[in-house]
Amino acid sequence: MKRLILSLFLVSAVSLAYSTNDTIKTEKKNTIFRRIGKVFTKIFKDFNEIDTNYIEPQHYNYTIMLQNTNTYEIYRLESKSGQYITFAPEPTIRIGPYVGWRWIFLGYTFDIGHISNDNNKKEFELSLYSSMFGIDLYYRQTGNDYKIREAYLGNGLNSHTLKGIPFSGLTVGIKGFDLYYIFNHKKFSYPAAFSQSTCQKRSCGSPLLGIGYTTHKLDLDYEKLKNVVENNISDKYQNVKLDSGLMFNKVRYTSYSISGGYAYNWVFARNWLFAASLSVALAYKRSTGDLHYKSEFSLRDFKFGDVNIDGVGRFGIVWNNTKFYAGASTILHSYNYRKSQFSTNNVFGSLNFYFGINIGRK
Question: Among residues 246, 290, 219, which one has the least CA distance to residue 79?
Answer without folding.
Answer: 246
